[in-house]
Amino acid sequence: MRDVAYLKLLAREYPTVKAACSEIINLTAIRGLPKGTEYFFSDLHGEHEAFIHLLRSSSGIIREKIKETFGYVISEEEEEELANLIYYPNKVLNQMALAGRNTEDWRRITIYRLLQICKVVSSKYTRSKVRKKLPPDFAYIVDEMLHVDYNADNKKIYYSEIVRSIIDIDIADEFICALCELIQNLTIDSLHIIGDIFDRGPRADLIMNELMNFHDVDIQWGNHDISWMGAATGNLACICNVLRIAISYNGFDVLEDGYGINLRPLSMFAANVYRDDPCQRFAPHILDQNIYDAVDPGLAAKMHKAIAIIQFKVEGQIIKRHPDYEMDHRRLLEQVNFEKGTVTVDEKEYPMLDMKLPTVNPKDPLALTQEEEELLHTLKMSFRHSVLLHRHIKFIYSNGAMYKSYNHNLLYHGCIPMKKDGSFDAIHFRGHSYSGKSLMDLINKMVQSAYSLPESHPDKEKARDFMWYLWCGAKSPLFGKDKMTTFEHYFIEDKSTHKETMNPYYQLSVKEEYCDKILKEFGLPTKGAHIINGHVPVKLKDGETPVKAGGKLFIIDGGLSKAYQSKTGIAGYTLIYNSNHLALAEHVPFCPGEKNTPKVTIVEKMKSRVMVGDTDLGKELEERIRDLKELVSAYREGVLKEKV
Predict the structure, then answer these.
(1) H or E segment at 141?
(2) pLDDT of amino acid 560
């Protein structure tokens, strides 16, 4: 028998034999249900409109459910209208009211159709689980209506009276909205984000709001996420990097309107220091127009250059503090010959495209000016005091990790660093060597320490600096390249210097034997298991495929970000794992008001339907059942007393 102290704790929740037995029956029944549908997204990159649409539409699956449910009973136009109502109920109801179409008949028919869809998407769940997802204000009504027997005449009358009452007392719109939200919640059982929520796109903050309202989500950190997490810890290089990327993509709304970061000190500094410099090489990419914080492109270019130069300085200082990073060759400001106007990279000299560097002291290139130090202090305080930013970052910490092993799927954003011979590459830390799974576990601890340790702790600065290394270090699993060539892109014309060599992982992992090696490292079977990656956009237009290594590796970054769509030819993927199959939804570039329906392709059929009992949740339930059976025995043997 288990520890009696543990059983006493369990007895608080189940104080009688009857209560424990009831829960055993309930959990056993749940294990016999089909598993819930899991959705995998990667590399959202601030594209809030596209992602929210995919989330609300379940990547086109809701539209499929409508077609399956009503077949040819309703027209394609009505299917589209019903789908849009489910995705955006408030917006569509307003449009219907303005058009004079929100009639009593339309409401009655719409409620009926929504209830039919609810029945379809809730069929794989227990009634108690569905109840937990029901909108509180309408829980009783919806529960009753989902279980109406339409073959019984008295029940038909009962149903009709409920609908008539809803319409008569003028709560039909609220009821319709509640049904639409319920359908969305039931269609996706759990949500996995394989990294890179932030950067490039306009409003990562709105994506975070959506994720925080979702019922079951986990996040595998990406390199862009870690940069924002590092900025929240107060890492100056990460703060500069976050600002540089946001400004370079005209992302002033997410900084100022989203997170309340005060950019006025930076704009004043840049306007003064670079007043006679057009900063042409720092002109921002304008993929999206700012709504709240429009900034003149000329000033934005000056701000971009100002923060980039400061970033190169503070990055160089970090590298100096950490010879163990083996990045001395990346202190490129120190390699600039100010008399000749050249820079030496990897022992070769190149002309500098821009030598207007008024804040760089040739004798001490990494030294910050007094004005730069004051500016950095102000910016750091702005990041540290942003309430919404820290609410979002804490959510990423509490719901995230470097990797997740779940239902025979191994999820991580970038790579497991490898050498050319296929062995795992290692990082040496405090006299120990870490590679493969042990490296990922070490990074988990370091990332947590960077945020949670008090400022006075001796390990705080080392952990905080390590956040920047994870952004661009050669052995970082989140970066996966030999170097970050940001400096070269700005200052050197020779494009050969812009090349970033991918870690050998990316050539090796497309082979089954190396996928098997990784799966074994993380304790997963080599048959029936998958690795799910993001980070590297799949160029579908060039003939690349997201499914590799004989179906063991899925790379699902297909370019949700507008910045990548010209290269990929599509707008990303959703991987969908239900009880019958794995499917890929291939996204089209998002256009408001258009159909935006992804192409869904089944890529692997399960040999038999996957039930809850076959999943990790099923194992947890099985353990719980064993505990409850021991509790029942303890009651019956008199070890514990029932509370009756």
Answers:
(1) helix 139-146
(2) 75
Q: How far is Cα 199 from Cα 237, in angstroms, rounded to an integer?
A: 16
Rg over alpha carbons for the chain, rounded to the nearest Å, is: 28
**Global pTM value:** 0.91
Looking at beta carbons, which pairs linking 609-614 to residues 24 or more positions away fall under 8 Å? 609/34, 609/579, 609/580, 610/34, 610/35, 610/579, 610/580, 611/31, 611/32, 611/33, 611/34, 611/35, 611/579, 612/30, 612/31, 612/32, 612/33, 612/34, 612/35, 612/36, 613/31, 613/32, 614/35
Q: Which residues of 4-42 are buried (b: 16+ CB within 10 A; e: fewer)?
A: eeebeebbeebbebebbbebbeebeebbebbbbbbbbbb
Q: Contact at 8 Å (CB) between 345 and 492?
A: yes
Checking if the pLDDT of 82 tops 60, the result is yes
- Beta sheet of 547-548, edge-to-edge order: 403-406, 409-412, 530-533, 553-555, 547-548
Task: Please report which confidence band the pLDDT of residue 145 belongs to, taking 50, 70 and 90 as the band edges.
Answer: confident
Q: Which residues lie closer than 8 Å to 439 by C-beta, 6 or more apart?
A: 416, 417, 424, 426, 427, 477
Tokens of 189: 């059982």
**Helix 264-273 vs helix 370-384: crossing angle, to nearest 10:** 160
Q: Are 571 and 589 in contact (CB under 8 A)?
A: yes
Q: Is the pLDDT of residue 210 over 90?
A: yes
